[in-house]
Design goal:
Shape: globular
Number of helices: 8
Oligomer: single chain
Number of domains: 1
Structural class: alpha/beta
Length: 257
């Protein structure tokens, strides 16, 4: 069940979904609420499995103004090879170790289906658009594809990604702690993210691998939510759409000083 915090439901929300490619693995989701001049945490969940559970988490925001950033391919027309947007990201961010996988329908089916595309299609029936914001700070109901690694390179000015995935336990914990410290810096960004106290302290090293994975997923979902909120706040000046809505589009933030 999502952990919720207080607040009015009439405010703008930014929602991040770190979507697992298979329902056998957990999906995390985080909801940020706009409070006049900053984002604040409203709700989160870290063990969503089925598509129905993910949609249940999103249902309270079905008719609310919000922007949803999903870390998963949302438009995949190609049966094989890769999408143009994925090739472009690999060529631009590969030297930072932030390139993605070559996405195609056949490959995604090996994980159980095209979850991102199916989720996006359901959200469009709810009245969401796949078009990124056209005006800064305007009411919107949109869902966009985001990719945390390139976003981190740009927003944090990193030379290469912070490695915190698929590592042995000791390296995993160190990488997660570094990633956690990096994300806390968002409280000094424009717009700022006001982290709740429960998110400021990393879990102890005695945590199980399952709890460490839950922490990793939760951090990634929070960053997806912030990317979506950043894009909404700044509008077209604050993002670059890589690709198009016919062949696949990844929304990458621009760092604005």
């Amino acid at each position: 069940m999502p952990i919720a915090m207080g607040g009015s439901r009439c405010a703008m929300r930014a929602i991040g979904v770190d979507l697992a490619w298979s329902p056998r693995n957990p999906t995390a989701a985080v909801v940020l609420r706009w409070d006049e001049d900053h984002w604040t945490m409203e709700a989160w969940a870290e063990d969503l499995r089925s598509d129905a559970q993910i949609l249940d988490f999103l249902t309270p925001y079905r008719e609310a103004p919000c922007i949803i950033g999903i870390d998963a391919p949302l438009i995949v027309p190609n049966e094989e090879s890769s999408r143009p947007c994925d090739r472009w990201i690999a060529s631009r961010f590969g030297r930072h170790h932030a390139g993605g996988y070559p996405v195609n329908r056949r490959w995604l089916r090996s994980f159980g289906g095209l979850r991102g595309e199916a989720l996006a299609q359901t959200l469009t029936t709810w009245g969401f658009t796949l078009q990124p914001p056209l005006h800064p700070g305007a009411p919107i109901r949109a869902v966009i594809e985001v990719f945390p690694h390139p976003a981190a390179i740009i927003l944090f000015g990193l030379r290469r990604i912070i490695r915190y995935k698929r590592l042995r336990r000791g390296s995993w914990i160190r990488g997660l702690r570094r990633w956690h410290r990096q994300l806390l810096a968002l409280e000094r960004f424009n717009p700022p993210l006001d982290w709740p106290e429960t998110w400021r302290t990393p879990p102890p090293e005695a945590r199980t691998r399952r709890s460490l994975k839950a922490w990793e997923d939760r951090l990634d979902a929070a960053f997806c939510a912030y990317i979506a909120g950043y894009v909404w706040f700044h509008g077209p000046a604050g993002y670059e759409p890589i690709g198009d809505l016919d062949h696949g589009c990844v929304v990458v933030p621009r760092r604005l000083v």
